[in-house]
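Justification of computing resources. Each target in the renewal requires a structure prediction run like the one illustrated here; the chain below, 273 residues long, is used simply to show the kind of job we budget for.
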Amino acid sequence: MPSGIYKRVKSLCRKEKIKLDCQVCGVSIFLLESIIKRGRGKFCSKQCKNISLKKTMLGNKKGFKKGQEAWNKNITGENSHSFGRVVSKDTKLKLKAISTGYKHTEEARKKIREKRAKQVITEKHKESIKEAAKNNPNYGMRGKTISQKGKEKLRIWNTNNPNRVFKDTKPELRMEALLKSLGVEYQKQVPLFNIARVDFYVPSKNLVIQCDGCFWHGCPIHNPNWTKSQERDANQDKVLQENGLIVVRFWEHEIMSPNFRILMLHQHGTDTN
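Resulting structure tokens:
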């Protein structure tokens, strides 16, 4: 070690260190006065520093007085402190990790709802939206085409993550009551093999029960001209059967008939007792 550096290190070691407590965990730390003057030494480790940063970003308002204006308010463009700033990938990941799991309080949600309820789209705003749609050929989904691969991905996503709550139809309610009377353990609206969300699934028997509406599924008696769903239903049955499942389909008029219980047990042998 060069003599100059050795003397400097030796002089630093002789200086007295000041005892401080970590602002997060309270652990005692000893630091030089020069380090404290530079505004450092508030935390004992990087972990405690990150915890403090997270609390600050999630709404810790202790250092911000009520009614106090932000120092950078109305400062935009080239005068802004963040103008031309490029955020690194590591920083983006850190910010994402900090904000993950953040939820508004019930009071904040109420304020947001009230504010949105007061918002009114004016006629001027509506006209500007129409003008933007006219002048932009790619406005919204206009002019865009989805590839077959993209459509398949969307179908799988919608099957596993539906954006609606499924309401039981009359045939499904009757089928559920029958399964309960037979003492069958079942699951409702189960996504299977990324191909279909089945009405009823009986795990103990590897059995799938589908309740098909006469109109939307093209019943040969009540709606024989509707053929759009038949190919899809046949493809679903094929995939499910290839994966070792037994698929049984009932028409709406069959389920709603008075003798449905006898019909099901006789024709399909689905008595699990």
